[in-house]
UniProtKB/TrEMBL annotation:
Originating species: Niallia endozanthoxylica
GO MF terms held by the record: 4-hydroxy-4-methyl-2-oxoglutarate aldolase activity; metal ion binding; oxaloacetate decarboxylase activity
Keyword list, A-Z: Magnesium, Metal-binding
Subunit description: Homotrimer.
Protein name (record): Putative 4-hydroxy-4-methyl-2-oxoglutarate aldolase
Length: 205
């Protein structure tokens, strides 16, 4: 993991969202299957036909260690495009996590692997294998444009995309915003008097 990815990993998605002015967060349905999951890495993008996971298998084979697979599954949730076996392959290949705009299955088995998976839903029906999909192209995932190499950050609040061309700028802005939030917390929390002081400063007497 590079230094910038480690820095993003230390920041909450909420602070990064503030730096991006509330843009570039994926659909709110895309969440981690465990609230404790946190990822920050480079996007390896995959576009698949609805319900077909061949492209995911190709991506697992071709992605680099530490990459985050970002899968445009067309938001389709009637067939799962990954189960515990496919996720175990990604884990074995050294990937950091998988974001799927679609469905998975074998939820308990995947949780037992303790490998970060973010998805739209779970279902029972298996995938099909009929088309190769497309790798490392610009995609839309959860309503957000994602290009290969963009920074993907995910935690319990959701997933956000930082375009690689502005990653340094956004990192600095997010870090500054979070510092200001911490200062506000220290100044105004802990007592009724402090809380009232803050409310008056925002709302007036």
């Amino acid at each position: 993991m590079s230094s910038i990815e480690e820095k993003f990993l230390s920041l909450p998605t909420t602070g990064i969202s503030d730096a991006l002015k509330g843009h570039n967060h994926m659909n709110t349905a895309i969440k981690p299957i465990k609230d404790t999951y946190k990822i920050a890495g480079r996007a390896f993008t995959i576009s698949i036909p609805a319900g077909d996971n061949t492209g995911i298998l190709r991506g697992i084979r071709d992605a680099k260690k530490g990459d985050v697979l970002v899968v445009d599954g067309k938001g389709y949730t009637e067939r799962a495009v990954a189960g515990d076996f496919v996720i175990s392959l990604a884990q074995s290949m050294g990937l950091q996590g998988i974001i799927i705009d679609g469905a998975i299955r074998d939820i308990q088995g995947i949780k037992d692997l303790d490998f970060p998976v973010f998805c739209r839903a779970s279902t029972i029906a298996a995938s099909i294998k009929a088309a190769p999909g497309e790798l490392q192209i610009p995609i839309s995932c959860g309503g957000v444009s994602v290009s290969p190499g963009d920074i993907i950050v995910g935690d319990a609040d959701g997933v956000i995309v930082v375009p690689s061309r502005i990653e340094e700028k956004i990192l600095a802005a997010a870090d500054e915003k979070i510092k200001k939030d911490q200062e506000r917390q220290e100044k105004y929390s802990g007592s009724k008097e402090k809380a009232l002081q803050y409310l008056i400063s925002v709302l007036g007497d």
